[in-house]
Task: structure prediction
Amino acid sequence: MINNYILVVDDNNGIRRLMSEFFNQQGFYVREASDGSTALQLVMEEKPTLVLLDLRMPGLGGLEILAEIRDLAPETIVVIMSAYFDAKDLKKAVEEGKIEHFIIKPFNLEEVRILIYELLNKSNNPLKQTLNPSSFA
Result:
């Protein structure tokens, strides 16, 4: 496992590139995947430290990918990203233990960076965290 390896999984190329460039500048090793199959292959082969995972993508959805990641690399921290915020569904997924960490799009990269550092520093102490840029006005 490469320390501080972030895998960005999103079908939106712009979001992948933005996050990849930002986290590269922060000193992280970053890989990108545009779909679930590619993401799972990278997780299986390379065991990233942290995965930023879009909830809604064509083909395999975020929750399906998350379940596979937990089987393949249970130590990997997964942060779900979504622009489609449905409080009831999200609350249910959190209560069922499917999602531990999530961010709502659009997000502020600096706030995502802070969350990532917190998660990496406390990786032995899982924390349920919501990052919603509108709450930082």
